[in-house]
Here is the input.
Amino acid sequence: MSNRKHIVFVYGTLLKGLRNHHVIEPGRFIADGETVENFRMTAGGIPYVSRRDPICRIKGELYIVDDKTLADLDRLEGHPRFYCREEIEVEAPGGAVFTAWCYLCERSAGHHLVDDGDFRRVAQAWGMEAR
Ligand code: PCA
Here is the structure.
């Protein structure tokens, strides 16, 4: 079995302290990051990021994961039927740019527009942090 490493950018429930973080925890945290391009983030109970009607950069975290963790993430996010894993560019503090996998969603959206691309702030405001 191959043991390749994959860089993944997460912006939602996979963030540290949020409810699905355990799925990416076998990976290694690299840095905080912000997408180079603008996207549109909306949220209901969960966040969605779409390429349509982009308004801002998305804030999140970069990880390195192995094949098994990537497969677990794909299963969790319903790739490619619901969220779709795509490669995007992400800038870390200090300016390094990484090409990373990210779960985008063009099939659904939440009622709340997150106009600063920061789901952690929304999760805190809505009391959604994992205990
Ligand atoms: N989980 C993925 C996509 C949206 C979500 O809640 C993430 O955290 O990046």
